[in-house]
Amino acid sequence: MKKVVKFGGSSLASAEQFDKVGKIIKSDKDRRYVVPSAPGKRFSNDRKVTDMLYGCYALAEQGEDFSKELEEIKARYDEIIQGLKLTLNLTADFQEIEKNFKEKAGKDYAASRGEYLNGKVMASFLGYTFVDPATVIFFDKNGNFDAEKTNEKMSAKLNKIEKAVIPGFFGAKSDGSIKTFSRGGSDITGSIVARAVNADVYENWTDVSGFMVADPRIIKEPKSIQTITYAELRELAYMGASVLHEDSIFPVRKQGIPINIRNTNAPDDDGTWIVESTAKKSKYTITGIAGKKGFCCVNVEKDMMNSEIGFVRRVLQSFEDHDISIEHVPSGIDTMTVFVHEDEFISKEQAVVSELHRLAKPDMLEIEADLALIAVVGRGMKSTRGTAGRIFSALAHANINVRMIDQGSSELNIIIGVENRDFEKAIKAIYDIFVETQI
Ligand code: ASP
Description:
Helix content is about 35%, strand content about 20%. The protein is α/β, with parallel strands linked by helices. It folds into 2 domains: about 5-275, Carbamate kinase; about 290-435, VC0802-like, CATH 3.30.2130.10. The strands form 3 sheets. An 8-stranded mixed beta sheet has the order 3-5-2-1-8-10-11-9, sandwiched between helices. The protein starts with a strand and ends with a helix. Aspartic acid binds next to helix 7.
């Protein structure tokens, strides 16, 4: 068996955390390819090394003195190296970084050093081979990730190495310059490595025991999700459930490699399995609930709208022309509503309204703000009668007015629009009816 293991920043924030990680890796000989993040926070108001690097580079870019900031970053690594009693010395690396900062090597280069150096520490700690991602992860000249070239080169390289450490978060463009993924991107590297070595599983180690049925900031100690499909995860992640970088499912999904989210601080917990498809039923009919506040909607009314060819297109055109992405478009016979993100829409609202009038000539138009959307997601809903009924009676009992309902034909999710002020109450009511009551 081959396992790729990725460890997040909080799992590698200190020598003590490194020790836990070492034990996890050594306890299973199949854990052969290790993808580390940069050291994260050791305590709640600590700083992540990646943020320190961005800050330090910003000074360098302005031609200011950044030596103190760079020293602080070095101290973070030295603390880990000394705590682990390694002989590794990063002085030469830091001299090179200092030189490259002075030469303005770029923000991505700067941020990438967090993972790069932590990879060196990890390789020395484990006795694994260090592989520089700049030699195996490629971006094209426009900065788009080149999945196929990466897969080919990385496979060729890693197939010859029994045990390797490949730092997360970055690769290189064809001109050799460093390029990072977006924040949290070490998750993507883990997935790319899993695909390249054709791993049996991609273990993603973090500081929680997987995905929860609902946001723990709203529901106290929510139940965890044992198995979730990629499709369900996409829905929940889009609606704000963030444990894993959204883009990290694509490389492994192509190969049918499952992802197992695990907790470095509770290694005996099974965590969450993310799979292509499963016969396992989720325990509670629904798999998860997630949502976001801060939407607004534009209601458009026009008699005989349904028979007017091109009406919907003209309405949507008014949003597209102003670069506004659309969330949901529920409609009636003579009415249509467009849900958009408030922060994207608000500065352009009057321009959209006048274009709407010009293109679609509605009889009435009205904008409403302060709305929230909640996604109730679950593969089990397809085969279970009464799911929608339970959701809406729970909301009615909680005195919540439902502003919008949208169920996709896949029956994988039901999206509910409520007012911002009812958001938490609505999530509690839905959680309660499916998880606590379980009728
Ligand atoms: N260190 C990077 C960040 O803080 C990438 C990662 O940890 O995944 O975003």
